[in-house]
Structures
1.
Amino acid sequence: MSERDVERTYSVEDFAAKLRRLADALEAGKPFRIQIAGERFTVPRNAQISVEHERGDDEEEVEFQLKWKLADAEAAAPETDDAEV
C-alpha cells in the first residue's frame, strides 16, 4: 500500500454525520468504514484514539486522531464494500 497524506474539508452537517457513525461504531465495538477523497477503508474497533490541541500565534487546532496497524484493518474489513457502518 502506498503512502498517503490527505486532508479533506467537510460541511458541518457532513462532519457531524461522520462523527455520529463513528461514535455508534465505537460504542457497538464494531469497525468503522469511511471514504475520504475517493478511498474507502476500515478503521478497526481496536484503533487507538487521541485528541490533539495545537496553538500558534494566530490560530488554534484540534485534531481527533485514530491510529491502527494495517494488519488490524485488513482483519476487520468486511467481505464487500456494502457493509458500511
2.
Amino acid sequence: MKSRFLYVLLLVLPFFGACRESVDPSELKVYDGPINSATNIFMVHSDSAVVRTEIRAAKQLEFQNGNQEFPEGIDIKFYTVDGELETTMVADRGYFMKNENLYRGEGNVQIKNLIKDQSLKSEEIFWNQAQKKIYTEKFVTIQDKGTLFSGTGLESDDSFSDYKLKSPKGQTELPGEGI
C-alpha cells in the first residue's frame, strides 16, 4: 500500500510543478529608487572639534549605492577655522555622489562669501569636499563688492574667496549693491 501511494505521488508531483505561470525575465526589473527618506535633515562636518560645514535640507533621499538626492533644495554653510560663518551656498536641488565624494547643486544656485562681500549665481555648481573646491562649466554671474562679472566656467576654493572665471564675458561697475 505504501509503495503504491509513493508511486502515485511520484507520478502526480511533476504536474504540480508544471502548473506555475512562466515569467519573462526581461519583465523583471530591479528596484533602483530610494531605499531611505528623511525630512528636515541637519548634518555637521567638523575638524578638530570645530564646525567646518553645516548642511540642511527639507528632504533627503538615499539610494542603494550611497548616493543622495535633495529634491526640495539644499543649504550649505562654510565656517572658518575660527568658527566664523564665511560662506553660504543654496540650490533648488542637490545631489551627493558618494563614489566621487562630490555634491552638485542645480537650479537657482547662489553662493555668498559674507566676509569678502562676494556673491555668485549659476544654474549648476559642484563642490568637491576632499579637494575643498567648487567649480562649474555653466554661465555664472559674480558680484565682487561693487563690480559685476559674468562668464562661463569657474574654479574656486570652497569658501568662494579665491575664484577664477574660465571664460570671462563682461564686467560692469554697479552704482548700488546686490545682484
